[in-house]
Amino acid sequence: MLPRGLKRKCSEDEAPAGPLQRQSLLDMSLAKLQLCHMLAEPNLCRSVLIANTVRQIQEEMTQDGSWSLPGPQTAGRSPRDRLVSTEVLCCSAWAGPAPAPDPADLASALQAVPATQVPGAMPGGPWDRAVPGESQGGFPRSLDQVFGTLESQGPGTVEELLSDVGGSYCDLDAVLMGVVGGAKSGPEGLETFASVAAPPRGTGCKADLGELDHVVEILVET
Amino acid sequence: MNYPDEITYGNKADIISTVEFNHTGELLATGDKGGRVVIFQREQESKNQVHRRGEYNVYSTFQSHEPEFDYLKSLEIEEKINKIRWLPQQNAAYFLLSTNDKTVKLWKVSERDKRPEGYNLKDEEGRLRDPATITTLRVPVLRPMDLMVEATPRRVFANAHTYHINSISVNSDYETYMSADDLRINLWNFEITNQSFNIVDIKPANMEELTEVITAAEFHPHHCNTFVYSSSKGTIRLCDMRASALCDRHTKFFEEPEDPSNRSFFSEIISSISDVKFSHSGRCIMTRDYLTVKVWDLNMENRPVETYQVHDYLRSKLCSLYENDCIFDKFECVWNGSDSVIMTGSYNNFFRMFDRNTKRDVTLEASRENSKPRAILKPRKVCVGGKRRKDEISVDSLDFSKKILHTAWHPSENIIAVAATNNLYIFQDKVN
């Protein structure tokens, strides 16, 4: 339960926040969003309000010019990882035709994780769909861990994840298109998939097709 | 107004999540986190104890909702009762709607004080009699028995909400009601459970564009075609169902322009409306956001007519309140029967009342330590800085785990019900 009184971690001053306070608020907000995302069914109102706050901070930081693409200061992460995370967020070409809950989980898990590193692009994951079964094990702290997990368990795991897909992607696309074009009051789940199929509009994506192919290869295991 | 003097309370195993008087004030219903509904009934005033006003005693207890598992999404659906709304009484039985995050139920609460006796084929314990032993026929008669109150579910309105239900509201036509979740509002007919009409849908085609959710909704008390809903951006929309089937375009839009001097990163969060209530007259609406209660005239959309500060001393603490999530607490607000006083809760088990006519306000505390039965409640004061006087409490000593989110006011008398976590307090006006 909450202790008596208030913690003094935050600046109590309500004057326009300096850059340090702004950054700390941004970090806190992103941590809250990640926590939201870990819950089976996040409180939508809370998630929306926090996301709006993050957006507001990012906008102000962009205007100030204090926001820049991640540079060499993020030590400990290889440049390749950062590029990969950008790609995963911005281009959901591979995440699109994935109707089964598990691959969608993976998509949203991957979308949410690198949020701190990508300017402008917001994780659509948190309230796009419920994220079932996220609580087993820990939440992946980095893409490294996610990919690491997949690779160490062998390609079989990925196949299992995507096994419900069946057929070819073309078939799935047709199914999705048919459903969306038809009755508007279809099951909620399919509406969600239709919205996933549209790639999120990421700003400032620097496409590196070579890296994307590499990612797709790992995940799809052709 | 006179200070309340009587206090009755009950211990609940779980946290109370909603409180509601019925239309006569004779009954008071509470819902809790464990899915239970407890109904209190006011004692008839007896001639023997003229100075003792009617107390509320437990009338009926039943399990309204059970935890459920959504197999498609692999999610558990909480049994917590989010809202209870009474239907106006039309016969001897009482009817109420109770809802959790996903399912609304109509409950019938009725009394049984007679039972039939003297069956031919059964004995008094209900065992079948051997027909060969029956030599005479008799007509069963109704005999008095100890009063039994039974609650039966009459309708279950399920599978219509993807998101969490935050409000239900009975229409003045008494034939329909609405249920609102974060993104949609549905209209139901009480007789039909397998179908509902969607009247508001603010879900964007692309969920990533979502920036605003519905936070509360209510029907107009007299005009059955009119309702309002509030949003997380501090706006209220009034809709007329005669205009179109899907009320995506509002008839009126209420929003106060932002005060640039008070702008911060938390401005939007604290403007999010947690409750909206029509006045009994139907001429005004009241909204509650994190720091204030506002009264709006339906004829003036560009600003509220009255604004009351609930706990403005928290304005400089918003960052800490954001960190510990208190900033997301959803407080409710209520009108008294004559729309002259409004009430809402705060932290440290404090609740506030504002007299709209005299402009006086008072802070009271709902706690067992500080109140004895029939004691007069002492007004409380929060010290905002400088020298703290005796009996004042400083902002930093407030207990943020003790929050009063749910309160109710008797429809015609000065009797209030205040839910403080898992305790219910009922306060009445001083006699003479």
Automatic annotation (TrEMBL), chain B:
Q: Tell whether Repeat is among the UniProt keywords.
A: yes
Q: Which family does it belong to?
A: Belongs to the phosphatase 2A regulatory subunit B family.
Query: What protein am I looking at?
Result: Serine/threonine-protein phosphatase 2A 55 kDa regulatory subunit B
Q: Give the matching InterPro entries.
A: PP2A_PR55, PP2A_PR55_CS, WD40/YVTN_repeat-like_dom_sf, WD40_repeat_dom_sf, WD40_rpt
Identify the keywords attached in UniProt to this record, alphabetized. Repeat, WD repeat
* GO CC annotations on file: protein phosphatase type 2A complex
- Entry annotated with the keyword Ubl conjugation: no
Which organism does this record belong to? Answer: Capra hircus (Goat)
- What GO molecular-function term can you cite, just one? protein phosphatase regulator activity
Which superkingdom does the taxonomy of this entry point to?
Eukaryota
